[in-house]
Design goal:
The chain is an alpha+beta fold. The strands form three sheets. It has a nine-stranded mixed β-sheet with strand order 1-5-6-12-11-10-7-9-8, sandwiched between helices. It has a three-stranded antiparallel β-sheet with strand order 2-4-3, with no helix packed on it. Strand 10 and strand 11 form a beta hairpin.
Length: 296
């Protein structure tokens, strides 16, 4: 057992408590998924292994696992999860996120983004910003250079415009892509995106066409969350389609959140001491009322 395991677990548990509370206030319900799935091309990430001449995946990407498991969803489905995800190895990343399936894309996106914002605020993390972008904008911009679309997306993922500079395309096209690559603001001219930003109405949300995410199920709108204190995203998500229905989701990297979270303590917790029979009787009464207790 790692010496820091209990410390890490306590911190993740505390973070999970605030995230669960926030997700449930927004109307999401928790889903528990199996740790091992039969191998499928639809499952992303996870660690593959063979057993009895069959192939399986341990702890795959949660969104792809949900899509693989839910065969006939209701008209509207709002789920959240807290789970570990593997990516080919034995050390995983703890994630917490929500999936909203079946609704108006603008409203789903705005609600998910506000869920992100209020969850971070519940954790006491106020200094962050969210970059939101669009795949459709890039599809339109590369319509006349489809053969180089893969290289353009590679440049976006790596945030390296030199990859585009080396392409055998016109300088005019490079200039157009350069403007998109570096666009960052509150209003873009793309109505779908502008309506989402207007609905969320938070000064920490910005349109950034340079933001893309490499997972293949995203269809258009996507975003990432950053903190100036860390060199990697706190999480991200975006729009996808599930059995012909629009959907929107995101996931936090709980390891990243743990670097910013400072334990608050529970000011409402009642400390009890005295004769055991009386103390535990009072503790039981308070717990039944939903009041946290600590027996000394």
């Amino acid at each position: 057992m790692r010496k820091s395991l209990l410390v890490e677990s306590e911190k993740l548990s505390e973070i999970g408590k605030y995230l669960r509370r926030t997700f449930e206030l927004w109307g999401y319900r928790e889903v528990f998924l199996p740790a091992i799935e039969e191998y499928s091309d639809n499952l992303r990430k996870g660690t593959k292994f063979a057993y009895n001449n069959e192939f399986y995946v341990i702890k795959p990407d949660i969104t792809s696992q949900i899509l693989e498991n839910i065969k006939e969803p209701p008209e509207k489905l709002k789920l959240y999860y807290i789970s570990e995800v593997l990516d080919g190895g034995i050390r995983g990343q703890w994630q917490a996120g929500v999936e909203y399936i079946g609704g108006d894309v603008t409203k789903m996106a705005a609600e998910v983004l506000l869920t992100v914002i209020t969850a971070l605020e519940a954790l006491g993390i106020e200094e962050f910003y969210i970059d939101i972008g669009s795949l459709k904008v890039w599809e339109r911009a590369t319509e006349d250079i489809k053969e180089f679309r893969g290289e353009v997306y590679r440049a976006l993922v790596r945030r390296n415009f030199e990859i585009i500079e080396r392409l055998p395309i016109s300088e005019e096209k490079k200039e157009e892509l350069w403007r998109l690559f570096n666009f960052w603001g509150k209003e873009s001219g793309y109505q779908k995106l502008d309506r989402i930003v207007e609905a969320v109405n938070d000064e920490r949300l910005f349109i950034d066409f340079g933001t893309v995410r490499p997972l293949p199920y995203y269809r258009d709108i996507l975003f990432e969350v950053y903190s100036p204190e860390l060199g990697k995203p706190l999480g991200g998500g975006g729009e996808y389609t599930f059995k012909g229905r629009p959907a929107f989701g995101f996931a936090f990297d709980m390891g990243a959140l743990s670097k910013l979270f400072r334990k608050k303590g529970d000011r409402n917790r009642k400390k009890l001491s005295g004769e055991p029979r009386e103390v535990f009787g009072e503790a039981k009464r308070l717990v039944r009322m939903g009041i946290p207790v600590e027996v000394e």
